Amino acid sequence: MGQPSVLEDFSETADAATVTLHSAIEVSDATVLGVESELSRLLINLLSNALQHSPAGGTVLVGLQRCGREIQLSVQDNGPGIPAEEQRRIFERFHRLDPSRSRQQGGTGLGLAIAQAIARRHGGLISLYSTPGQGAMFALRLSAARPIAAPST
Fold first, then answer.
1. For residue 15, what is the enclosing H or E element?
2. Using CA atoms, how far apart are residues 64 and 75, in angstroms rounded to an integer?
3. Quick check: helix, strand or coil at residue 21?
4. What's the sign of the alpha-carbon dihedral 111, 113, 119, 124?
5. pLDDT tens-place string over residues 66-112
6. Kind and range of the H or E run holding 126
7. Strand ranges inside 53-99, DSSP E
8. How far apart are CA 39 and CA 127, in angstroms?
9. In sequence order, which residues have a C-beta less than 8 Å from that of residue 103 and are 6 or more positions away?
10. For 47-57, what is each residue's pLDDT tens digit?
């Protein structure tokens, strides 16, 4: 019996939050070189953030696709989104959109900073795409471990 995936681990958390967790896996071979435990932590942090900011009845979509020589992992929610003036600071340590939110309500303000640090250690970068009122998408791009085979002619 194999280890459960991060998505399987989060299904109960999503159910408890009455948030639907979907995946859109568009590649069969999405191998990247890296430290598995760190890359799992990165995904856990992105998923935790998305679930925390999704409304009851909301949806979190995890996508995986190949973009040329890179693999893109995306986590998208339909929460309140991130105001434009906050987007440049979202990966700073201890930064919270709502400073009145206490640790008991969840989060330390470190999750996205840790995720970005892990991405950079692996030669990647997490980008943020968000429109207030329409949710947020965090997209990680990493170099694929194996290039796409050239089509035979």
1. helix 6-16
2. 9
3. strand
4. positive
5. 988 999 999 999 999 988 888 787 877 765 665 444 444 456 678 89
6. strand 125-130
7. 59-67, 70-77
8. 16
9. none
10. 999 999 999 99
